[in-house]
Fold this sequence. Notes:
five-stranded mixed beta sheet
Amino acid sequence: MDSASHPSSRPAYIDATAGIAGDMLLAALIDAGADLSAVQRVLDALIPDSVRFVRSWVDRGGQRAVKVDVEVLVEDPPHRTWASIREMLEQARGREDVPARTLDLALGVFGRLAEAEGATHGVPADEVHFHEVGALDSLADVIGACEAWRQLGITEATGSVLAVGSGRIRAAHGDIPVPVPAVARLALGWPTVAGELLPARGHWHSHAHSHDHPHSHGHGEGHSHSHDHLPAHAQGGPHEHGGRRVPAGVAPGVGELATPTGVALLRGLAATAGPQPMLVTEALGVGAGTKDTPGRPNVVRVLVGRKLTPDAHATPTAALQLEANVDDLDPRLWPRVVEELLEDGALDAWLVPISMKHGRPAVTIHALVREGSEDAAAALLMDRTGSLGVRMHRVERIIRTREFTEVEVRGQRIAVKVARDQDGTVVRREPEFRDVAAAARALGISERVMLDLARAAASGAADA
Length: 464
């Protein structure tokens, strides 16, 4: 699949609410349409005869998913530092068999991973070692996912809140907390969730990844994690765990749900964290981890599509309502404040008189705005009124569709709003009063007379 066939803007959403590992993300991208054989060719061009991808279909918690395993083909792979990996990738620039964008993405991801591991161990990033199988595993996951990302033509991405797991695991350096140090550093600035509070009669299920994603390290010390997770359960009232009394409904630990390679890919590929953005989904990929826990699908999902460009004149059924109470604005200024909000794109704006504390008379200004324009509208509202804050809430609306047409009355052009019912029947035609007032001034007649003429013209246009 060639990215050239995709539109110039192609958004994606990475759902890591069940955790993430490099092989899981790669599998999700393959499921979404990337060509695994083409991914293999890129990897072979960089590290020939070293690893082989094997794809299979699996069931995870009742969901169909793609599993991609990495088979190591060499018995004694070399140790690699971040500096040597960077040099290998840079030397591949200009080669026809290694796309430049894949190299750029992979360099960014490995750079994040090396910085996090270096900070964890107190060594410069260039000295961080990716040992033995771990080096090949990380190279396969990172380069493979970046090439699949390129193939799908993804240009921007948002990631979900990241499930990192909880509890403790045993590693070469001893018993360490989850998230492991490198994941904790890679997740700085990103929303994460560890455990869950469960109902008193609930059951906790662990779905930690048993695939051993080795962690990079410095000074020649290895610490790949053996996933010997503490038991995870919460059934009924308080229970004993590790000699400690655990409150009812609190999970003592689910183990490691996010690996350093997986989180480095999430941070390197997704620019922002948040809910799924508005997009028309054209491809869905579901990538599986190794562990299968009933009732909790151990998967990463990727949604790929195109932006939905709203019609500037369409009236949305969902909007945001901004409000502010103001008690010190000269009342002569209010009409222009409302006009500016409307000119700036507000769907509606209005004033409501109120009485504040100590009986002070005041005004609440309201503005109904499209999602995505709330920041600009709030800034305008505060600037024009002097308010120090704006309340905001989402509103859902049942509306009739609107469209505009024009009529001509005595040489004056007047816009007419046409409202339609759900079946398309026109239920109302109303001249825009701003145009009516302007036409009345131009013709030297009253607004009342001009409004009657405009309504008659709008009705006549409908009958014609």
